[in-house]
Amino acid sequence: MAAAERRAFAHKINRTVAAEVRKQVSRERSGSPHASRRSSSSLGVPLTEVVEPLDFEEVLLSRPPDAEPGPLRDLVEFPADDLELLLQPRECRTTEPGIPEDGKLDGQVRAAVEMYTEDWVIVHRRYQHLSPAYSPVTAESQRERQKGLSRQVFEQDVCVDERPGAEDSEEARRSGSPEDTPRSSCASGIFDLRNLAADALLPALLERAAPEDVDRHNEALRRQHRAPALLTLYPAPDEDEAVERCGRPEPPREHFGQRLLVKCLSLKFEIEIEPIFGILALYDVREKKKISENFYFDLNSDSTKGLLRAHGTHPAISTLARSAIFSVTYPSPDIFLVIKLEKILQQGDISECCEPYMLMKEADAAKNKEKLEKLRLAAEQFCTRLGRYRMPFAWTAVHLANIVNSAGPPDRDSDSEGERRPAWTDRRRRGPQDRASSADDTCSFSGFRPATLTVTNFFKQEAERLSDEDLFKFLADMRRPSSLLRRLRPVTAQLKIDISPAPENPPFCLSPELLHVKPYPDPRGRPTKEILEFPAREVYAPHTSYRNLLYVHPHSLNFSSRQGSVRNLAVRLQYMAGEGPSQALPVIFGKSSCSEFTREAYTAVVYHNKSPEFYEEFKLRLPACVTENHHLLFTFYHISCQPRPGTALETPVGFTWIPLLQHGRLRTGPLCLPVALEQPPPSYSMLTPDVALPGTRWVDGHKGVFSVELTAVSSVHPQDPHLDKFFTLVHVLEEGSFPFRLKDVVLSEGTVEQELRASLASLRLASPEPLVAFSHHVLDKLVQLVVRPPIIGGQMVNLGRGAFEAMAHVVSLVHRSLESAQDARGHCPLLAAYVHYAFRLPGTEPGLPGGAPPGTVQAATMARGSGRPPSLYLARSKSISSSNPDLAVAPGSVDDEVSRILASKGVDRSHSWVNSAYAPGGSKAVLRRAAPYCGADPRQATDRSSSRASSYLEGASSAPPAVQPRPTAQKLLHEELALQWVVSGSAVREAVLQNAWFFFKLMVKSMALHLLLGQRLDTPRKLRFPGRFLDDISALVGSVGLEVITRAHKDAELAERLNASLAFFLSDLLSLADRGFVFSLVRAHYKQVATRLQSAANPTALLTLRMDFTRILCSHEHYVTLNLPCCPLSPPASPSPSVSSTTSQSSTFSSQAPDPKLASMFELSGPFRQQHFLAGLLLTELALALDPEAEGASVLHKKAISAVHSLLCSHDTDPRYTDATVKARVAELYLPLLSLARDTLPRLHDFAEGPGQRSRLASLLDSDTDGEGDFGGSINPSVAMAIAGGPLAPSSRPSISQGPPTAPRSGCPLSAESSRTLLACVLWVLKNAEPALLQRWAADLALPQLGRLLDLLYLCLAAFEYKGKKVFERISSLTFKKSLDMKARLEEAILGTIGARQEMVRRSRERSPFGNQENVRWRKSVTHWRQPPDRVDKTKDEMEHEALVDGNLATEASLVVLDTLEIIVQTVILSEARESVLGAVLKVVLYSLGSAQSAVFLQHGLATQRALVSKFPELLFEEDTELCADLCLRLLRHCGSRISTIRVHASASLYLLMRQNFEIGNNFARVKMQVTMSLSSLVGTTQNFSEEHLRRSLKTILTYAEEDAGLRDSTFAEQVQDLMFNLHMILTDTVKMKEHQEDPEMLMDLMYRIARGYQGSPDLRLTWLQNMAGKHAELGNHAEAAQCMVHAAALVAEYLALLEDSRHLPVGCVSFQNISSNVLEESAISDDILSPDEEGFCTGKHFTELGLVALLEQAAAHFTTVLKGARQPACRAEGN
Asked: What is the pTM of this model?
């Protein structure tokens, strides 16, 4: 061989001519990613600028509806049924509604009744549930979708599960010592192989088929049984970043606290002589408040009840209840269940009456028989005569905290807020108003075990201590260890009660109004009563049902100055509708064993007491309509206990009353009333007792002697003066009943407007609790005032501004009151529920389009009458908006804030500030201005333009109005809200901004109802809303956007809320309005942010807000349609073509220039961002975040990648996109992601290598020479540019395929989590995109770009490589950080610097699945949002599931990479540069075959490898030895697999490789040598190698050779047999090595003998020398390892000396004699034995100058380690 040829053979110098270098460099310059995308001009429009979007509606109009075929048609436009109106029946807990019958109801009550009975009005977007905002992909939903996954089989899992078989050990025993079996025993080797069973043969493998047919067959097989959704196998998106997450609010429900069920089972005394009645109630000692109404029960026997037959009627079943459900909103350890007992009134004080119960015992019944008979007889007499009166008897209390704590929770996990869903008062976070102590949290009444109590001790009642104040003192004393009550003699009894948490829906339950609560199976069943709660503190919940109850609590009576016999005092209560005796209404609830309602009720009587105290509670059902005549009448009686002739049973001794209405308001609260001695005079009920009626005598000189308290629990009467006044005035205006008395003022038509304005202003002073309770009423009335201004005296009173301001303050008050119950986005659930369910347009019936207003409401249909002077009207028209005439009286009086907004934001009613095209002369002006559909009424289109807020700037026409009054249609709420918001003052605007989301939602629902009820959905979107309203929206969006920007640093929390609210508002508008207009608003907002970014000190905050804004916009349910996926991209319509189109490089694989349309689809070009507007925004945010110069990169990386990931996950789960053609069209929206990831490659986390070593494909598209100046996908750029004759651009960013592997990365590197998620998104695009499109794109790529793409695919394989069950178990049970012992580090150092085969060996070994990245959030066992942080150990099932999912993900990801590689191969078949590209493709394939892969993937990967080698044999057999070596190594490893499927395909591949090599030159020396070397390497380095399975594969290859009919006439079968024998011998040596695995000296001696046996094969000897060095290093023998490497270097030097005559090289092994005395062994082979011309000898990369240097460096490293180890003991000795 000539010297030049030898040098070319030895060094493999790249034969690239200068012209090709220049051409390649020019491509490099034009195709490389820029250092900064911000200033990228190749995209036409810089990424920092937002392109002007296409006019969405015009684009749709220009395309016929049936332009797209089949399923793609649904992507063109929103569905016709996208928006619908739902009337959802209001949930009614009771079987009957319980509303008053239609009688003479006043307007306020009628409005309340309608509100509590009308259906919810819901604007439903039918497809909104498909949005990621409403159906997010969570870890739970992912697990649900992962059910049914098939288990993938992996070699490493099989190795873990299996143990060595008996055959191996037996064969090892037979192998004997190294000398027992000579290596020349060919007959024995063949005999052993022939006796083995071969694996199954692949059908049709030996048949000759066309490459195209093979490719089609392989592709069809790859398409089978694939995972339909790739991202279902990937961890769910991070919930922390899900700013778009939202849910539908829960409908308003009646508030309940934690509910207790108390059952009264029995009451038994020592003696049973008379009926005893019980009362239950809850008391909170800390708050000193009774927190429930009374529950009355009767446990008397039927015989005992018979004593009262003279007084009783047939008892109603509702009064026979013996169980009650108590509600406790604020559980506390200070709550007591108080039980009071009463008996029939009898002669004698309480002590006398209790004495028999305290003295007599049941056991002494015979002894006390006469006394008992006497007592029974007396009791019977008292029951007959005094049966209607009762007296206090005894009491006791149960400390509920003791019951709860002693019973204990049934399940600690269920210790929650209660079984029933709480209302908005459920405080998940402790608010400032929650004054409860920490003990509240430990006291829960919802999760304890039921307990049955027997109460045995009762305390007798004391006549002087019956008040609640005394009771609280007793209860506080009961908690002390030395209670005074315990010293008292008790009344002995046995009361059995059962206390348990109330079930969710108990049967036979009665509401506090005695209505049947569902379910109520049988009306005859004994009921359970729900007891109304009197909460200890404020409860902020809206009224949802009609309730109108009044509780009367008499406290005390002082008749001490009353003369005469007035001692046994009873108070009778009557509810009077008039003054006659017959006017008493049956509205008083009965107690126990009586009628359901009564006309009168009595207090208990305290014997011989002129100043009694009362604990009585009267419960009344208020009539729906309370009038001025309604009053409570109290009559005081002296009860004669002893019958005396001529003495009446009851003698009236006093009278007093309470008029229930005071100035139209319900009178409540504590009162101290004077008592009249005689019957009051006529018409007394119109006055209060405080008025000294003429001729009336009073007790104690008209002083207050009767203390009573009224408490109303009403959803009709607000009981707040400000709310009462507001409702009254609105009612008066609706009724038009003038004059009207309001307190002491008589209102006329002239004064009511002023009062109403004052009332609106004073709403902010209302108490929070009633304001929240009546919030729906208040908001409805305010909306009505805005939409339907009242008519007073024929003039319209415009209250728009006042009502809007009041609404802002009311919403703010409600929000603050419920601050602790806000959701994650800071929204008040009550307000959200109001908008979603309760809000409706006033005067419209949802079932009637544009329904007529009710007849009782006067709509503003006429302007103010002609009675007003025209000049006044003219003045208003000049200075006052028609929708807000009270803004000012002159243009100059507008406040500065309004002027600033109007001036800066351009609130101009004749010019749109957003887009000049919408100006009066613009191209779209006609469409916006002159449409008959612009408003609710056509008249609106022209009436308002001249008198809106623009008059402040430009002045209105001074022409007087027409003579006839100008008609004004009903106003539209959304228009008024937008206008009032824009022109509001600073104070109001601040309140609105705090709750901007509410007003946005209100506007959106108003707009939707306007379209639905007016049947305007068929109207073109450009004509749905008038231009003036769109102008207001534009100004509003600009104003709010500016607030977001300015507050981003001052008030970050508010800015975040405002930003989200604005984004959701624009997203909602996309479903209602002109979508092109909305896009223009988005663009305007982006421009605002971009302007501020230029001067922002910390732009990260603004960028984060903008990214959240984009993510919310992209969460729209029709996001895909909004991106116009079915419209073909067109070149930019700008006058000058984009830079990319004029300077684009020529294609690598095509002589023609790249298609600009195609290129624009894969880049963030102007046309792409213009057509796919939202996708362009999203990907632009990602591109800017990935920019190396981006600030706050780590945060932005995560947010941007998470946004894309979330969207792709939603596409995978969306049933609309299951069709492959549809999914491919969706994937086109994300094609630029491929270019982005490719350009970001240098900064992605390296999953395949250690830190800083991204050398896996450094010579991807070049020769395989390492370190000779040729790096990456092309030539070294600095050298190449000099060759090409041009300077290297200083801003060129090095990439994998264009710079040295050690080049520093620019910019902030991405974390492992972000990198892996980005790669998952890339794989999603590759999986779902149209293959033909990808092929065309790949054909247009320049060589460096294609190199980076292949590098990206390589990284994908590494990122998703399977970790193995063992790793998951280790992560779960051990610590999470990777730790390497000394042995592992030594192996890393050794294997990391030697040949490619050993690199692959090391890569294939078990590695940490997470690289060196500590912050790996995709790791399920570490990530905090996956599971509780304190949980380290997982169940076996969970680990099995994780391994199952990880295996499927690895398989699918690898198959996607394989599909893409096939596309690239198809692209480059006819290209000139195919050799370099195909070499790189083969390297990626080889890496995939060398990593941990499933059996499913390996059979497809090996099929691809066979097809690739079959079509391009020159890849392996012409020059590149390393590729052939790597392939042989992988095939041999898979031939030894324990999985038969893998062995079958690996054997087939290895056989075809031999056959291919043979057919080229009638021998396969290269493959023979590489296979032999690979096997030697495997057996020397791999621990879990299976000789048995490899022998079966060898037998299979022999079988192929024997059955191959095409080569029977050649020597091929014989050569295959010889090779199999050699391999069999190597395996025999391996068995011997395993036998001596535990004896290092014997093992090394055996390895030395094996190495000597290969002296005739330099490549194999070198391999075994390296194996010996590695084993020595493992054992810590670095001196011996160094000697082995010296021998290896000497061997290489010997053969380099034979091949070359270079003076700078060693002359041979003699040069190393001073280092190793026996190094001359390496010169044992003479020159005539070596045949350099024979293929396969000395062709490894170590037989080069660089290889020699590498070996010497490794030897030096081992010697250095020895020296360091020698110095350390010496240093220690010196120190001692």
From this structure: 0.79
